[in-house]
From TrEMBL:
The active site is at residue 251. This is Aldehyde dehydrogenase (NAD+). Residues 23-476 form the Aldehyde dehydrogenase domain. Gene3D superfamilies: Aldehyde Dehydrogenase, Chain A, domain 1 (3.40.605.10), Aldehyde Dehydrogenase, Chain A, domain 2 (3.40.309.10). The keyword Oxidoreductase applies. CDD domains: ALDH_KGSADH-YcbD. Belongs to the aldehyde dehydrogenase family. It comes from Paracoccus pantotrophus.
Length: 481
């Protein structure tokens, strides 16, 4: 117990294990509201979790598709049924608005149900050998024990889109969610436990990445690591996995361009940018952070976007009229505010971006638009990860495309245009994993691949049937007929 509250424990080998140490989970909309106390694992707990997963692996790998389907389907069904209650928890711990949080919970449920189906569809190839009298079979097998490390900004969807395929293809899992948002990961752990997930198949270890991350990634019992988070942490994990020759999948940051051409539908372009840049408080890896606008539409676009941005209602994530929730914590807020100052020092004209003091003590910030910026400014090179977007004025399509591609990242890219030629050429030539035409850069489906290029991603894609590339290994068998 902590201050009269039960400590929410780690799940290791089928047992809930509250450690002595625990952390409060604080509501960023109202820092007086403590959502709960969550156990903090140590290196010993990580070791126990990996051993539990290793012990469970042979039986789970052999369990067959029906058992895996039924478990994932039951979890998906319950996530969908409890979307409002779990969405409230999500909004309370992460700060996105209730509709956004319920949408994310629904997405997590859909992902579990999709991979319940995929568990029944693990396919291989039967081929003729080039040598007469020999059969060749290519089959997929589970990888083993997989470490999953997830960020705070999609605290239920990202764990879901890693856990569900990992289990569907017969792997065992140790999940380390972000320390800021353990509540949603804990709900998934509860549901897996409740619906009969065998002991050790899924393990949850909560606590700081600086303590647990390396212990998990470099543990000899881990076969593969799937990570979503910042480029800096991703690089460290890649280095460790490279040395240990461990399969790794990294989804990292973005500096996503949204091109607005003179021939765009102005209202649609403004809405796409408003959504892409500021919704979910701009805390999306696919957020539109560089708005690359052709000179003819520039002034009208900036005037309208600025006006609509200033009208967005910032407030408590659970209030029905809130459109933009708080920033996730003080550290991220300080970082965002420092970028607003940096924008000024880099000669941008700044609209909004100020710290807001509302009726509750929360991490509130007005959305910010940086005008008259150049692509070489630091505000246009570094991921801010807050409700901030820059406008870069360009002459024509070629300049827009060149600037869109002039970044170390390559996650999502968008164009608003009425021209089929520009849309098609942009889709072909932009260096990004996902391309949006007349749509916000954020907002994706769950049954198709998700991921980027360049510094945004490393390794096989996530989601859809492409997830099998990471969560399975291929075996080629030859047999004398
Ligand atoms: P982060 O600081 O890199 O943290 C991500 C996860 O890594 C957290 O669970 C963190 O634990 C853990 N971690 C920290 N240090 C570690 C270490 N040395 N070894 C192993 N794990 C460690 O990122 P974040 O601030 O949570 O998330 C924001 C970033 O995620 C942004 O860059 C965003 O673009 C990116 N993101 C990318 C995608 C995508 O699909 N491309 C999706 C969402 C977010 P603690 O938090 O407990 O310290």
């Amino acid at each position: 117990m902590k201050d009269g509250n039960e400590i929410q424990g780690n799940l290791i080998g089928g047992e809930w294990l509250p450690d002595g140490d625990c952390r409060p989970n604080v509501n960023p909309s109202d820092t007086r509201d403590i959502i709960g106390f969550f156990a903090c694992a140590d290196r010993t707990a990580v070791d126990q979790a990996v051993h539990a997963a290793r012990s469970a692996f042979p039986a789970w790998a052999a369990a067959g598709p029906q058992v895996r389907h039924d478990l994932l389907d039951a979890v998906g069904t319950e996530l969908l049924a409890r979307k409002e209650e779990i969405g409230r928890l999500l909004a309370r711990e992460e700060g996105k608005t209730l509709p956004e949080a319920m949408g994310e919970t629904i997405r997590a449920g859909q992902v579990f149900k999709f991979f319940a189906g995929e568990a029944l569809r693990v396919a291989g190839d039967a081929q003729q050998s080039v040598r007469p009298g020999i059969d060749v079979a290519v089959t997929r097998e589970p990888v083993g024990v997989i470490a999953l490390i997830t960020p705070w900004n999609f605290p239920i969807a990202i764990p879901a889109w890693k856990i569900a395929p990992a289990l569907a293809y017969g792997n065992c899992v140790v999940l380390k969610p972000a320390e800021l948002t353990p509540g949603c990961a804990h709900v998934i752990a509860q549901l897996l436990h409740k619906h009969g997930c065998p002991a050790g198949v899924f393990n949850l270890v909560m606590g700081p990445g600086s303590v647990l991350g390396d212990a998990l990634v470099s543990h000899p019992g881990i076969d593969a690591v799937s990570f979503t988070g910042s480029a800096a942490t991703g690089s460290r994990i890649a280095a460790t996995c490279g040395t240990l020759r461990r399969k790794v999948q990294l989804e990292m940051g973005g500096k996503n361009p949204m091109v607005v051409m003179d021939d765009a539908d102005l209202q649609n372009a403004v809405q796409a940018c408003l959504n892409g840049a500021f919704f979910s408080t701009g805390q999306r890896c696919t957020a539109s952070s560089r708005l690359i606008v052709q000179k003819g539409i520039h002034d009208a676009f900036v005037e309208r976007l600025g006006r609509e941005m200033r009208a967005l209602r910032v407030g408590d994530a659970l209030q029905p009229d809130t459109q933009i929730g708080p920033v996730v914590d003080q550290r991220q807020l300080d970082s965002n505010l420092a970028y607003v100052e940096l924008a000024r020092s880099e000669a941008a004209e700044v609209l909004g971006g100020e710290r807001l003091e509302l009726d509750k003590p929360g991490f509130y910030q007005a959305p910010a638009l940086f005008l008259n910026t150049t692509n070489d400014a630091r505000i246009n090179r570094e991921e801010i990860f807050g409700p901030c977007a820059s406008v870069i004025r360009v002459e024509d399509f070629d300049e827009a495309l060149a600037i869109a591609n002039d970044t170390e990242f390559g996650l999502s890219a968008g164009i608003c245009t009425g021209s089929l030629k520009h849309a098609s050429e942009f889709r072909r030539r932009v260096e990004a994993g996902m391309v949006m035409v007349n749509l916000p850069t954020a907002g994706v489906d769950y049954h198709v691949p998700f991921g980027g290029r360049k510094g945004s991603s490393f390794g096989p894609r996530e989601q859809g049937r492409y997830a099998a590339e990471f969560y399975t290994v291929v075996k080629t068998a030859y047999q004398l007929a």
